[in-house]
From TrEMBL:
Keywords: Cell membrane, Disulfide bond, Heme biosynthesis, Iron, Membrane, Metal-binding, Oxidoreductase, Transmembrane, Transmembrane helix. Its main location: membrane. It comes from Salinisphaera aquimarina. This is Heme A synthase. The chain crosses the membrane at residues 74-94, 106-126, 132-152, 172-191, 245-267, 279-301, 307-328.
Length: 334
């Protein structure tokens, strides 16, 4: 297997891990295994009657629910495999290569990031789904995915030779769009981890209002203390609606910014027609994500659509990483 193929395989698995994590969270299986890294003291889900009885006695506050436990353990197996593949990438980076674009530092940055992700995964369980920790875990997964994408673009020497006009302005637009998307992903994670996805059950209004009652102080208090079980959320309806409404407003802003960026990319076709494909890809990813977000509300949080909404955010992030990489690699058109 070549280094590029290993990187591509790892990127694909990272996407699977992100969607599995969303599936676990949205199906209320985040505490399906009350301990870490095993499950009720086992490396798999206890199924024998004696093992289940012992697990129920040891964890009396959370008896075995096999269907939830298996969801959590499958996610952990996938995440562990991802960590091993990233380690393989880092070790491969130590070997000499004729490819001048071979990444040597970034794979080791990813190793450190995955180790921190493991800690966040442990704290997600031991701190009983604390929103700040779960949100950080989701953002860490997205960061891992994005950096794997950047590494793939660099290693494959993609977008080399593209021509561009006014590169500085396009860099600013692409970089700004990426930062705004990161903020929007945080808002989406904060909405999910505070169980606010259905706090506004109607669309486009929220609880029949264009501007609902809000409580920004409680909605965005990051630290509520330890020893609290955050499963199903602890906030009242108004703070939850506030979180949801801000996420919707963020979606409006990010849509306008992405459409503007796509127009700027389309204008670059005068220098290189390949930019049109990049613009179309961005608009397609944006349309998919907006459609999924609206469907989550209109159809009242169907699990497949909600999971796909998380996956759509990852794909949109990967697209913006590609755009930023292309802009920085492009050569000025004379």
């Amino acid at each position: 297997m070549t280094r590029f193929q290993l990187n591509l395989l790892t990127l694909c698995l990272a996407f699977v891990v992100i969607t599995l994590g969303a599936f676990v969270r949205l199906s209320d299986a985040g505490l399906g295994c009350p301990d870490w890294p095993g499950c009720y003291g086992h490396l798999d889900v206890p199924t024998a009657q004696a093992d289940v009885a012992a697990a129920n006695e040891r964890f009396a506050q959370r008896p075995v629910e096999a269907h939830k436990a298996w969801k959590e353990m499958i996610h952990r197996y996938a995440a562990g495999t991802l960590g091993l593949l990233i380690l393989a990438m880092a070790l491969a980076a130590l070997k000499r290569s004729d490819n001048p674009h071979q990444q040597r530092v970034l794979p080791w940055v990813l190793v450190v990031l995955v180790m921190f992700q493991a800690l966040l995964g442990m704290w997600t369980v031991t701190l009983l789904l604390k929103p700040l920790i779960v949100t950080g875990h989701l953002l860490g997964g997205m960061a891992t995915f994005a950096l794997l994408g950047w590494c793939l673009y660099r290693q494959g020497n993609l977008f080399s030779g593209w021509r561009v006009r006014a590169r500085a302005g396009l860099r600013f637009a692409a970089g700004g769009a990426l930062l705004l998307l990161i903020c929007q992903i945080f808002l989406g994670a904060w909405t999910s981890t505070n169980y606010a996805a259905l706090a506004c059950p109607d669309f486009p209004t929220c609880q029949t209002y264009w501007w609902p009652a809000t409580d920004f102080g409680k909605a965005f208090t990051l630290w509520h203390g330890l020893g609290i079980n955050y499963e199903y959320g602890i906030l009242d309806s108004v703070p939850r609606a506030t979180i949801h409404w801000v996420h919707r407003l963020g979606a409006v802003v990010i849509t306008l910014v992405m459409v503007t960026l796509a127009a700027l990319l389309w204008a670059q076709a005068r220098a290189d027609t390949r930019w049109r494909g990049m613009a179309v890809t961005l608009l397609a990813a944006l349309a998919l994500q907006v459609s999924l977000g609206i469907s989550v509300v209109v159809f009242h949080l169907p699990l497949p659509v909600a999971v796909a909404h998380n996956g759509g955010a990852a794909l949109l992030l990967l697209t913006l990483m590609a755009i930023n990489h292309a802009v920085w690699r492009a050569q000025d058109h004379v």
